[in-house]
């Protein structure tokens, strides 16, 4: 039967036939053996009447996707092109504008890897039924399907030309629970405080609901405009993950549309295998999630920030500084109170940009004293400065961390040299449509290179600290290295580590003290737009420097693994790097819930069966 069917599939006529095969024939285990998905130029592309039926089914929410930059190429001298170019500088720097534009993604491309290209149509889903309709339509018509939340994927996993998009941007309902029990878990799982969020929610909306209004904490991402969906499905770290663990390990339940078009619940008691895969197995792979319910935590009294730079006057002084910092970190900061980043710059400057939880200002000052004393007393002549002047050591009531109005009034009092938030400000936007000024450089960016590597905590042992510091120095001769302490869970409380162990992420995260990220790119850039062209020569040189830098770190960290949400598009050993020993189990779950590979993303579970663009089964 399957042999005959495969033979049939080779003729164009049968392509048309297949696109009208009832869904029931494709369901019930009949595996789709076609080798190529349809494009608009193919005879098998759905007719206008078929698209109209889909539009009716989703309540008129099927949108043809227009690429806003096309007019710059098709009518470069038109008034529209002129207006667009004028607005572009502003709009391409606004993550909310990008999120509202179905054709665009927050990362607009990556040199020699991918460029953001729009889908042909998007279903602007309002609920799980709309998502299910899109899934069934894509499946019946053999379309390339993409799922987009807030579009922050560095790997271009939420865009594909010639595709149908499920766009969850408008699914932003949130609901707080004081005692949530997952369905089917009554009597098996203790009730917990939680929040349910629509798949299009971004973290600022979650923080508003949980912290600013609700006085509790939810583990989400550091960048406020990142989508809840992509972050949780890939693992997910925020500034305080050293205390609360990953976002994926907070997941209690998901409502998800699987490849057969059915709406499923996944939790510890129903579809537990799918539930496990959704916790870090990667976005856009096991189904399209319509809702996430995650646990919330008691809020500590304080959150805080420490920001300053130390500049060394010579290479040798910088090497000593790195030795001193590694030793200081291991002794004083390697615990649940401290997250975020120390950036080991390539021009002999270390930039501290760290987040604290549970410490008031005096306690933070005390924690940093040994290092600051060492720097001041050193004969090497270091200079210390803040991001402007003076250095920032601040603590604030935890409830105010994402309170845009409060921060708008108090940033100077906290010691910041400039406003910490930028605002959307377009008509109709709300006061909490904001993003951290520190993330502004990544809006509309075109990547030159990106790599991440977990650094095992064994490198912090006294006998290894010198090797680590020397590797950081050697790497920094090529490119700057971000040490993201909150993205390695060593040093976290046992319960946070145990919860993360029960997720699909590479277990290397459990024993790493940090994730080293080496990356570079260009803000607000897209090929072919005058004034916004990516600089390809610089990009390729930078990509090479990043590779050389990371080689120095691998020399001490080994092939420890990389975080799927923040990683190298060109990673060759991605199955092991992203998921370690969990990969075979993930592959089995993929086969069970999506045997025909409807859900495809670059270097996602099961993607080895497809061409790089996800159109051709290999
Ligand atoms: C500026 C910036 C800052 C970042 N900061 C952090 C950080 O602090 N911590 C951290 O851990 N990561 C961070 N990241 C990485 C981030 O976690 C990933 O890019 C994440 O995948 C983005 O999710 P999204 O929904 O915004 O993106 P999208 O590009 O929309 O989606 C990402 C992936 O998830 C899939 N997906 C989206 N919605 C769904 C759904 N409903 N069902 C199934 N699949 C879906 C997409 O198909 C895609 O594969 C950052 C990224 C950027 C660009």
Summarize it.
By secondary structure, the chain is of the alpha+beta class. Residues 106-107, 146-154, 157-158, 168, 199, 221-223, 226-227, 229-231, 233-234, 236-238, 283-284, 288-289, 439, 442, 565-566, 601 line the site of flavin-adenine dinucleotide.
What is the 3D shape?
globular
Structural class: alpha+beta
Tally of extended strands? 23
Q: Name the poorly predicted regions.
A: 1-31
Mean pLDDT: 92
The kinds of small molecule bound in this structure are:
flavin-adenine dinucleotide
Radius of gyration: 24 Å
What share of the residues lie within helices?
25-40%
How many H/I helical runs?
21
Question: Main sheet, how many strands, which sense, barrel?
Answer: 10 strands, mixed
Q: Give the end-to-end Cα distance, rounded to a whole number of Å.
A: 21 Å
Portion in beta strands:
15-25%
Tell me what you see in this structure.
The protein is an alpha+beta fold and 618 residues long. Helix content is 33%, strand content 21%. It has 21 helices and 23 strands. Strands 2, 3, 14, 15, 16, 17, 18, 21, 22 and 23 form a 10-stranded mixed sheet that branches. Strands 7-8-12-10-11 form a 5-stranded antiparallel sheet. A hairpin with a 5-residue loop joins strand 10 (251-257) and strand 11 (263-267). The longest helix has 22 residues, at 536-557.
